[in-house]
């Protein structure tokens, strides 16, 4: 543990040497411990964010039974994904994460293609999860402002609050990791001690507690808009149940942040994979405790589901604590969600920085601020794209759940592609210190099958009937990105995108890879490189 808290020069040297083997210079400040690495993923997963913002969705799409049992099932299968990711990040600890892994694990002739496709799905998921978290925070602020006041929440006001939150996250992220470390420690306390105290408070204060049967065996279908029936009638209860696991699956996303921060983490080959696994495992336990606490403390199910406030968690707190107590506890939730959005943008900007460094994005975004050692341009890009993705909320009643579906699909596809590539081409997978050995391939198989399943499920319609207001635009957004990624590859990107650039070797040969993204290709066409700089980094 001493190495993580006060790493010796030899540990730091090993990290930088490993990064150099992968072809990169140490540009970002490396001073994060295992606790900090875990804390960022734990904060982005933010159990209180996913559970609170999608609690209404869960109650109306399957009810308490699907929410509670679904949480257990989702966490079980998600841990397979986390294990597969941890094994890969141990071998390839870079800020690029999934798109870099895809390039390294694929054969030389397919390396750039897999890297390009994975990178764009990861970028989509990163942007959408930032949108989901921060827009959810804006909605919570709007809802809380209505308690005991004449304030009326509107879509326009919520978008305004959302823009202000994104701006605050961008400004704070611009100060670099040295400042973020302190907020990270606060976030860990809020999401562990704070959430535990919150759950204990509502359990001890609630006048009425639901029965175990009501929490674990109650099915409710509120997916039909009057006079139309719900999907349990039009399709089947199973349809509603599989759609209902979105709350749990969206909550347990973002743990790739431990990988994106590996270039800023000491002893990354061990601490980054442990950060991935710890964030999923701890979130699963704390999340289950919080979820069942809320479900046991619902005072009247019908009133809570149809609350005029529009937020069942807020309604439950009002029923238990009254208006003032509810405002106090909602403030705690909002602060937790704010921290989650902050660190989601941290992870998002690092992924974009890595992708730009390898020419997946314009070289304009490769700049690291000399004073704060932070990628300020990709931070601003992350905020701008997250704002754009929330604009449909002005005219859609399912915009928020669609954003969470997009985040879940985009991220998990980018998690699954490297795992699948490693499964198909095992000879290219040179394991790091975290090695699953004989269990590696079975775990990877389960992870890939599960990701395929949820990708299909979360594209399905959520409300009946399907119209312009209730359309799940997830397949549209995912389809646009897929069309862009595949179309751009075959039309022009395949002519110049070579996958991860071996920056150090290129610079030693006088190739200005940052200033001129076409320079490497010119050198390679002229026969001045060995052909390895832009294709594969040796493991």
UniProtKB/TrEMBL annotation:
The chain crosses the membrane at residues 38-57, 69-93, 113-138, 159-180, 186-203, 274-296, 326-345, 379-400, 406-427, 439-458, 470-492. Keywords: Membrane, Transmembrane, Transmembrane helix, Transport. The keyword Transmembrane applies. One of its GO terms (cellular component) is membrane. It is found in: Membrane. GO terms for molecular function: transmembrane transporter activity. It is a multi-pass membrane protein. The keyword Protein transport does not apply. This is APC amino acid permease. The lineage of its organism: Eukaryota, Fungi, Dikarya, Ascomycota, Pezizomycotina.
